[in-house]
């Protein structure tokens, strides 16, 4: 939008549920294909710009993807209206590069095998067009730099083209071979060359200067630093600080603070290890830095607790600033209560106001200013509660599902079984509760759920909103496949309608279909000048705005002024004001004329 455009104040109310569509898939397996263990994706992360996506797998590899569609063509809206320019609607990603981050190791002192599996990936700040990221397995964290390097190709060399070495290439095979001191030609063995190489008596027949014919750009990944020998237990989390200089790593009992530039030492800031291990009652399950306050971080535990700590209080943060805990309902305790209460993942919202946590059965949203309980609770797969015994027997009850909030903070998402994931609306009054499948048809497993009563979500008063419980295909959950689970997913921080999720060795990118706009979405759009005829309001007297399909292309302004006698500037809010008059206003967006001209004039009755 141009700088002069003004925002139209949207009417109060929750956002409309999104209509999710399949966008892309990488590594899709064919029917019956066996998935190799090393190919299963174990980590996924967008960078803060949303233009790069990184995945890690159990084979220790890190694969990078980059966004290829043009988000900004560098021209104003007015210029776009004058150009017959197709606009890319959906974000698209392509494979960028991959590298081997970790190798399998063996701790001979403890007789312990260390897997190469990537547990977490975190992006760091970019510099000089280079990408930086952290990756970790169970014991070792590595700092990677991925940068483009130009490789020159040389031609017109004086050596035998069939024996050229390195990245040099010879343009012509008719180039004479180099001569030795006795006048004979070079036999192609470079070991024969010595310091007594001289020109023949009559000189060389020809001498060519090497010429750079082309330059190839290759991506090179280089390990800048290795942060090791600091954790006795398996690392479950790493998180970058907003200061861009430090990060934390957490294992079951300790959290360490690192400086990116110093790999030889770290500072232990949280230690929950008791003097006697028999007294151990809880372990650390996840840790995350606050997105804006570099002195604050939160970590969760196997007891279902979230602790918020302030690094300014002391060097060893053995006490917390706030403790977030949901009171246990009376009479609800069972053998599985503590197991399913364990929090597997926590995430801060983009503004840092809320904390999103995932335990085995639910997704909870916490206000950091209110520690009496969650402000919203969403049931992810409540239909599995009667099957907890079976899940305990096959160890599925210990699966660690991740969660993620959207960039605008209006929705949250988490995974489930059978490659399903859930999307919930967390805005005040929202009733959105969607079940999607990591598939080319993500809506095929969606079950229509009854709307929840609208309840205000105040930042002061605690209101618990429970997500509608989707019974699934079968109410007892028997039709669900517990061997196919969607543990890892990430929401693009910029594109609020795009989610990347990992199903075994396949990476699916799902997004909301933007090809159709609803009436309420038009009202919330930014102010836009629409070139229309005043007499268009006379057509279809009995029609209303929502009954007409919205034309996705705006007739170019130069064509509009040539075909129409006069124009009227009207914004979206004024369109809504015309609705009571029962007069239809046909309106359009920026785009191409050619594909819509015929249908548009048929609509007008021309």
TrEMBL record:
A GO term from the CC aspect: protein phosphatase type 2A complex
Pfam families according to UniProt: WD40 (PF00400)
UniProt entry keywords in alphabetical sequence: Repeat, WD repeat
PROSITE patterns per the UniProt record, alphabetical: PR55_1 (PS01024), PR55_2 (PS01025)
UniProt KW Plastid keyword: no
InterPro entries with a match to the protein in the record: PP2A_PR55, PP2A_PR55_CS, WD40/YVTN_repeat-like_dom_sf, WD40_repeat_dom_sf, WD40_rpt
Keyword Repeat: yes
Molecular function in Gene Ontology: protein phosphatase regulator activity
Subunit structure of this chain's protein: PP2A consists of a common heteromeric enzyme, composed of a catalytic subunit (subunits C), a constant regulatory subunit (subunit A), and a variety of regulatory subunits such as subunits B (the R2/B/PR55/B55, R3/B''/PR72/PR130/PR59 and R5/B'/B56 families). Interacts with SIC/RON3.
PANTHER family per UniProt: PROTEIN PHOSPHATASE PP2A REGULATORY SUBUNIT B
Homology family: Belongs to the phosphatase 2A regulatory subunit B family.
Annotated function: The B regulatory subunit may modulate substrate selectivity and catalytic activity, and may also direct the localization of the catalytic enzyme to a particular subcellular compartment.
Name used for this protein in its record: Serine/threonine-protein phosphatase 2A 55 kDa regulatory subunit B
Species of provenance: Hibiscus syriacus
């Amino acid at each position: 939008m141009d700088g002069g455009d003004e925002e139209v104040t949207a009417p109060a109310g929750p956002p409309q549920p999104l209509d999710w569509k399949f966008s892309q898939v990488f590594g899709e397996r064919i029917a019956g294909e066996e998935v190799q263990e090393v190919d299963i994706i174990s980590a996924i992360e967008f960078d803060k710009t949303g233009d790069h996506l990184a995945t890690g797998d159990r084979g220790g590899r890190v694969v990078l993807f980059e966004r290829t569609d043009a988000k900004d063509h560098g021209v104003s809206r007015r210029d776009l209206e004058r150009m017959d320019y197709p606009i890319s609607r959906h974000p698209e990603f392509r494979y960028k590069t991959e590298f081997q981050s970790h190798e399998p190791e063996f701790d001979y002192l403890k007789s312990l095998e260390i897997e190469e599996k990537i547990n977490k990936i975190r992006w760091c700040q970019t510099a000089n067009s280079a990408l930086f990221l952290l990756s970790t397995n169970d014991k070792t964290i590595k700092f990677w730099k991925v940068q483009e390097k130009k490789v020159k190709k040389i031609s017109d060399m004086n050596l035998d083209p069939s024996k050229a070495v390195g990245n040099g290439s010879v343009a012509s095979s008719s180039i004479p071979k180099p001569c030795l001191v006795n006048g004979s030609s070079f036999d192609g063995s470079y070991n024969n060359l010595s310091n007594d190489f001289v020109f023949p008596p009559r000189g060389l027949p020809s001498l060519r200067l090497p010429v750079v014919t082309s330059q190839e750009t290759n991506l090179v990944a280089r390990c800048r630093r290795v942060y090791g020998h600091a954790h006795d237990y398996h690392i479950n989390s790493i998180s970058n600080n907003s200061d861009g200089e430090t990060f934390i790593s957490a294992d079951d009992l300790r959290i360490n603070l690192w400086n990116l530039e110093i790999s030889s030492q770290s500072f232990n800031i949280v230690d929950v290890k008791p003097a006697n291990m028999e007294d151990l009652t809880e372990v650390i399950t996840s840790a995350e830095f606050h997105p804006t306050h570099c002195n604050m971080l939160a970590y969760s535990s196997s007891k279902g607790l979230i602790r918020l700590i302030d690094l300014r209080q002391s060097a060893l943060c053995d006490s917390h600033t706030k403790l977030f805990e949901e009171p246990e309902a009376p009479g609800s305790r069972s053998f599985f209560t503590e197991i399913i209460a364990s929090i597997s993942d926590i995430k801060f919202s983009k503004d840092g106001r809320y904390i999103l946590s995932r335990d085995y059965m639910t997704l909870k949203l916490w206000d950091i200013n209110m520690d009496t309980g969650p402000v919203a609770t969403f049931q992810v797969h409540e239909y599995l509660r009667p099957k907890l015994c079976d899940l305990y027997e096959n160890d599925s009850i210990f699966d660690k599902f991740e969660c993620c909030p959207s960039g605008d903070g209006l929705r949250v998402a988490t995974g489930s079984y059978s490659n399903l994931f859930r999307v919930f609306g967390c805005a005040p009054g929202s009733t959105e509760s969607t079940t999607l499948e990591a598939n080319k048809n993500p809506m095929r497993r969606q079950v229509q759920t009854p709307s929840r009563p609208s309840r205000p979500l105040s930042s002061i008063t605690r209101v618990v909103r429970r997500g509608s419980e989707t019974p699934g295909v079968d109410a007892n959950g028997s039709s669900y496949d517990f061997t196919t689970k969607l543990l890892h997913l990430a929401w693009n921080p910029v594109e609020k309608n795009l989610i990347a999720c990992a199903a075994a060795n396949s990476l699916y990118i799902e997004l909301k279909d933007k090809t159709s706009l609803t009436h309420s979405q038009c009202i919330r759009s930014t102010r836009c000048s629409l070139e229309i005829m005043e007499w268009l309001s006379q057509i279809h007297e009995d029609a209303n705005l929502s009954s007409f399909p919205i034309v996705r292309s705006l007739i170019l302004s130069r064509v509009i002024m040539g075909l129409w006698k006069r124009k009227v500037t009207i914004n979206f809010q004024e369109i809504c004001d015309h609705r009571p008059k029962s007069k239809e206003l046909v309106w359009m967006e920026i785009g191409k004329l050619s594909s819509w001209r015929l249908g548009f004039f048929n609509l007008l009755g021309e």
